[in-house]
Structures are given as C-alpha cells and as structure tokens.
Amino acid sequence: MSRIVFICLAAILTDALTWAQVNVEPNTALLNEGDRTELLCRYGRSINYCRIEIPGEQKVLNLSPEWSKTPGFTYFGAGLTAGQCGVSIERVKASNNGQVKCSLGVEGEELSGIIDLVVALRPQQPIIELLSRPNREGYFNEGTEFRARCSVRDGRPPANISWYIDNMPANKRTTLLNVISSTTDNVELSTSVQEIQWHLSPEDSNRKLVCRSHHQTDRESVPPQEAAYIINVRYAPVHQPDAAVYGLYLEHTAIVNITIRASPQPKIEWTIDGAIVGQGRTDGRYSAYEPQYLGNDEYNVTLAIAGLTLEDTTKIYNLRASNELGLTDYQVRISSSSKPPSSSLDVAAIVGIVVAVAVLVLVVLLIVFARATGRWCFGGKSIKTPTNETSDTESADIKATSTATATTTMGGVGVSAEGEETVNEQDGPQEQQQQQQKKAKKLPAFAAAILRRFNEKDSRKYKDNQESLNIVEGSVQEIPATNNAIDGNDNEPKAIIWQSTSPVWTFK
To answer: Which residues, if any, are the signal sequence (predicted)?
Structure first.
C-alpha cells in the first residue's frame, strides 16, 4: 500500500515540476547588429501576463497580442491562453547584448526564463607581431627559426585565426588558439591570439605571410580581415644540377646564359682550362659579364665565347658564385647541336606502351599456338570432307590410286606400286608424329600439352579417313573385275576420274 502511495506522490510531483518549468527558444541567440529576431518563453498552462526585460532598454516590456506600445518590439507567440510569452525585435542593437529575461504570471505566482542574446561585434584588424627579429636591413638568414604572433582584438564572439603563405595554407607548426576576455564600459569582448613558427629556407624568401581572421560578422560584402608580412631571407647561391646550353653556332660568338638564385647578389668567376675569368673581365676569346638581376632573387650570368670552335664544345666550363653566406660551384656544357627531346614520358604514353607490348605478346603467343597445333593459316589439308568432296591434292591421290588399280587389272604389274603406296601411307603418320614430337620438345609445357591433345584428335581422324580410303580403293578394284570388257572404239580399259576443280566426269 505504501509503495502505491509513493508512486502516486512521485507522479504528482513530476507533473507539478513539469507545469512549473518555463521552456525558452532559443537558449542562445547569436546575431549581428541590425538583424531581426524572435525570442519565445513557453509554459504548459494559460498565463495572466507577459513581461520581458532586454539589456540596453530602459523599461520592461509588458507585451500582449492585443496591444503594442513600444516601437520596434512586438508580442510573439500563440497567445497568453496558450502559455506563450515572446518578443519580436525588429533591429538588434549592440547594447542589447546580454541575458533576456521573461516573466510569466501564473495563478498568483510569477515564473521566469533566461535567453542569452549575443550581438556580434566585428573585431579589430589583425596584427602580426614578430617574435624572432631580422637584421637591420629586415632580412633573416637561412635556417633561422621564424616566429610570429597574430592578434585579433575586441571581437564578440572571439574570432578564429588561419595562416596562409602566398594565398595557400601555411601548413606550419602553430599553437592552440588562445582567447583572452576583457570588459570595457560594461561590455565583454574577446581577443584571439595564435603563434606560428618554422625554420626558413631559400624558398621562403619574398613570400607573403598572411594572418586571416574569421568572424560571425563576415559577409560576402564584408570579407574576412587579414594582416600580411613579406619574409626576406639571405642565403648562399642555391645549388642546381649541371647545366647544358644547346643550339650554338660554330665560328660565331656564342652567348652562354645561366640563371642562379642567391641573396644578396653573388660575385661570379669562370674557370676554363685552368684560366680564371672574373666578372666584368675578358681573357682572350672569353668575356664574363656582370650578373643581371631578374627579380625574386634570380640573377642571369653570361659568358661570351668569340669564334666558337668544335673544340670549345668539348670543354667543361666551371662557374663559381659566392656571397657573404657561402659559395657554390656549377658545371656548364655547351653544344652546337639542337636541344635533344625530353626523355620524360607522361602517363598516357606509358599506358600506351604497356598496352602495345601486351598486344604484341598476345599476337606472338597466338602465332606459336597456331603453328604448333596446325590451325588457321598453318592448318594442313584434310583428306576427305563430310560431303565427299576433295581438294586438289586429294584428287591427285585418288587419280594415282585409280591408275594403279587399272594397271593391275590390265597386267598385274601395278601390284607392287600399290603395295609401295600403302607402305608410304602407313609410314606417313609415324613420320608426322615424330616431327610433331620434336616440335613439342621445343615448346613450353602448356603448349606441348595442347599439342599432344590435338595430335591425338588428328590421329583418330587420320585412322577414320584411312579406313574410308581403303573402302573406296576396294570398291574401285571390284569395278574393273566385273567390267573388264574391251570398248569397241579404242579397245582400252577406261578409268573414271572426278576432277575436283570442275565438277565433270572425265575418262582416261
């Protein structure tokens, strides 16, 4: 009994708490200054009145669907009887930032709810502060650890920071975003701070480091704010592979141009067959010019050779470039021939070559298979077709057999010839099988197995054809025995022969 009473009391208490709770929509409203918004407080029963307090407004708003006494603020909701108390703000002001409080009158008591209204304030322009100092001329030496800090002050909410180098993500080591809050004139603002660091290389020289802020107030018409710093690096002449200059004309003045990177400007000297030619000097047929600045730390170095000879094209020209940070040696070769085509192949060319090789291998395998098995263009002549038609070779064989039979009927002399022919026909398949076995020994295992299977089929076909041929020969031998009469016209026996090339019976 006590358990039932306890359950009933718990249900009543839960129901009471549910009805006494005020729900708010939304819990937090993040808006820009000038935006329109609706804020709503709800209760499960009918309410008597609806009062709303908004930061920055001098009076409390007593709202109802029946009247609107404060310009810019109107009642929002389904009505007091539905338990809804809301406000529609036409234009949010920066001073409205804070907690909006709604008060609902319910059966002699007052319930309240809180909504956080955050009115975004655009932060100040980002600032880049150098933590590692350059020299007096504003340069960093190669290998120096570069450190910089970006600060975005007085934003609400705090701004995010991203780093770029020449409009590409920096992909360098950065610290976690640090947010520092401060209050000025009862207004809470936030400052975002982040650092970046890495070791400098020649590729970093003359590149633009950008700190960009991202904030709630960014729009298409108001792009993100950013700060930039140009990095200047001093480094020794950059090493590069041996250079080659083509297309020079013999017996003419040859101009050899080489491009090198260095900061500051390098001094150069050429070494030719042990002779040193400094910049701005001439030694015999060789003249070395002053380096010409091309921009982005690149310099054009020129050597002129008067009356180029074939022997000059066989020499190696050594170039040394040096500045305050070091020196680098280069080797240059020259040629009077045109520049050879590039040996690099793209993906399409490589795929085409692979496909062509695969097709070639397949064709070779098919040819080997056809030759080994006697198929296609390598196929042998069949002895007899299913329609009892024979080829030219078969006609010759039948003709020879018929002639031998006729000779036997006349004098018996052709018996020996017929015997020899029968022996040759018996020896034929044996020799053919031996030749096929020799070919099989030269073939791979899988080809030899295929060849043996086809040889077995050919042997069975040959035996069947031989039996048919013997039957035909027996029939031919019986015909002269019964018709051994002498024709009255020429007194000679006749042999009937079928010519395969033309379907006409002829007599001989």
So the answer is: 1-20
Residues 101 and 138 in one domain: no
Q: Is 12 helix (H, G, I), strand (E, B) or coil?
A: helix
Beta carbons of 96 and 55 less than 8 angstroms apart:
yes
CATH of the domain at 261: 2.60.40.10
Alpha-carbon 380 to chain mean position: 53
pTM of the model: 0.59
Rg, C-alpha atoms of the chain? 53
Which residue has tokens 């975005």?
152
Asked if the structure places residue 59 within a domain, the reply is yes
93 CB contacts (<8 Å, ≥6 apart)?
A: 33, 56, 119
Residues 131 and 211 in one domain: yes
- Confidence bin at 183 (pLDDT 50/70/90): confident
Do the domain assignments include residue 108?
A: yes
In a domain, 11, yes or no: no
Count structural domains, the chain: 4
Domain that holds residue 162: 127-234
The average pLDDT across 393-413 equals 39
pLDDT of res. 347: 74
- Whether 426 has a pLDDT exceeding 70, the answer reads no
258 within domain boundaries: yes
C-alpha distances in Å from residue 119, one per residue of 116, 353, 393: 10, 65, 105
Residues 216 and 290 in one domain: no
Based on the fold, state whether residues 399 and 501 are members of the same structural domain.
yes
Domain termination residue (choose one: 120, 135, 159): 120
Residues 6 or more apart whose CB falls under 8 angstroms from that of 372 comprise 439, 440, 443, 447, 450, 451
- The residue among 161, 166, 229 whose CA lies nearest residue 195 is 161
- Same structural domain for residues 212 and 248? no
Q: Which residue has the tokens 């034929």?
A: 428
Lowest mean pLDDT among 11-25, 183-197, 298-312, 382-396: 382-396
- Domain end marker among 120, 146, 170: 120
Residues 6+ apart with CB under 8 A from 337: 246, 247
pLDDT for 490: 47
User: What is the 3 state secondary structure string of 355-391?
Assistant: HHHHHHHHHHHHHHHHHHHCCHHHCCCCCCCCCCCCC
pLDDT of the residue at 436: 52
Same domain, 456 and 430: yes
User: In this predicted model, which residue has the larger pLDDT, 451 or 232?
Assistant: 232
Please tell me what DSSP assigns to residue 474. Answer: H
The pLDDT tens digits of the residues spanning 257-289 come to: 999 999 999 999 999 999 999 999 999 999 999
